[in-house]
Specification:
Elements: E1 4-15, E2 18-29, E3 33-37, H1 44-52, E4 59-64, E5 67-68, H2 74-80, E6 82-84, H3 97-102, H4 113-118, H5 121-140, H6 156-168, E7 174-178, H7 186-203, E8 206-210, H8 214-220, E9 223-228, E10 231-236, H9 238-243, H10 245-255
Parallel strand pairs: 3-8, 3-9, 6-7, 7-8
Antiparallel strand pairs: 1-2, 1-4, 4-5, 9-10
Helix pairs in contact: 5-6
């Protein structure tokens, strides 16, 4: 069995008198592709915010790569190797596709302001490395023919892919995908499933994803955690989750 890359224990988040997440425990082993599902308002995105440091837990502990990272800020978590996409796409819409990714690549951060102002060799080298890396990521995500287009002009599915490319530019060890298939048609979802599998293999990634499309989640994830009203109600393989009475009740209740 592979080593644990990430875990949280008794993770709880309260907003005043409202408890959004209560005593949630998740463990992800290196190389796994794990799903986090639940009805609307179950606390999934809150969990993502806590895991990535965008919000601080009211209680509980978070560990990543063997270290306690509870209350570590989001920019530090990104440096440690945790990257994410968002349910509401976040791109620089007035910037072209290539620059959206290039600006995030590490090559562009290996020089200081003076080197950039004077256009020293390390500045030119860093820019060249960032451009090459960005183009490689865009090709992998099927966007290599759209480098010069404005991000805001891309079709919705391509914007989703561009956001994944930006997250990969951070060179993460753990990638969190928040509703990556939202707004996509069945063909686009099938392509995205293949892409996610490809980037996992290419970058030796561990992935945690949220999505409402049960067919998508069941078709790609090896293990699944289920939340309902902020609490974990089930975990297991896709087949175990599909048959779990608590999961069936939670989803039927949402549709009632």
């Amino acid at each position: 069995m592979s080593e644990s890359l990430f875990s949280c224990r008794e993770l709880t988040k309260q907003y005043g008198g409202l408890t959004a997440v209560r005593n949630v425990g998740i463990e992800i082993r290196k190389g796994e592709l794990v799903g986090l599902i639940g009805p609307n308002g179950a606390g999934k995105t809150t969990c993502f915010n806590l895991i990535t440091g965008a919000d601080e837990p009211s209680a509980g502990r978070i560990r990543f790569c063997g270290s306690d990272v509870t209350n570590t800020r989001d920019f530090r978590m990104a440096r440690l190797g945790v990257a994410r996409t968002f349910q509401n796409i976040r791109l620089w819409r007035e910037m072209n596709v290539l620059d959206n990714v290039r600006a995030v690549c590490r090559g562009s951060s290996q020089y200081g302001l003076l080197a950039a102002f004077l256009r020293l060799p390390r500045f030119r080298r860093g820019e060249r490395e960032a451009t090459n890396e960005a183009r490689s990521l865009l090709k992998l995500l099927g966007l290599d023919g759209k480098e010069a287009e404005l991000a805001g002009d891309l079709p919705y599915g391509d914007q989703r892919r561009l956001e994944i490319a930006r997250a990969l530019a951070l060179r993460p060890r753990l990638l969190l995908l928040d509703e990556p298939a939202a707004g996509m048609n069945p063909s686009e979802k099938s392509d995205l499933m293949r892409t996610i599998q490809a980037i996992r293999a290419e970058f030796d990634l561990t992935i945690l994803l949220i999505d409402h499309d049960m067919k998508f989640v069941m078709g790609i994830c090896e293990r699944i955690y289920v939340l309902d009203h902020g609490e974990e109600i089930a975990q297991g393989s896709p087949e175990e989750i599909r048959r779990n009475p608590k999961v069936i009740e939670a989803y039927l209740g949402e549709q009632a």
